[in-house]
Design brief:
Layout: H1 9-21, H2 31-40, H3 69-82
């Protein structure tokens, strides 16, 4: 009897990728997230060019005269992470 592996993408994307590399099945993630594995040969795209595109994170927040310091720090962190 085969039991499907069901993974919530949130914090378990690495588990899903590792399972696919181990040969357990297909991983439905954004092409940009999988690109290093494609380049190394660990994974092979099977639905090219139909891979989902990830245009980047979007953050919606109410405009206020004084933005909370924690929100400003988070926005700065996300912007800096995208530059790498």
């Amino acid at each position: 009897m085969t039991v499907p592996l069901i993974v919530c993408i949130g914090g378990a994307a690495d588990l899903l990728i590792d399972a696919a590399i181990a040969g357990t099945g297909i991983v439905p993630l954004f092409e940009e997230w999988l690109r290093p594995r494609f380049d190394s040969g660990a994974l092979e795209p099977v639905l090219e060019p139909r891979g989902q595109r990830f245009s980047g994170p979007f953050l919606y927040y109410p405009r206020r005269r004084h933005m909370p310091a924690a929100l400003r720090a988070f926005i700065d962190f996300v912007k800096a992470s995208g530059d790498q």
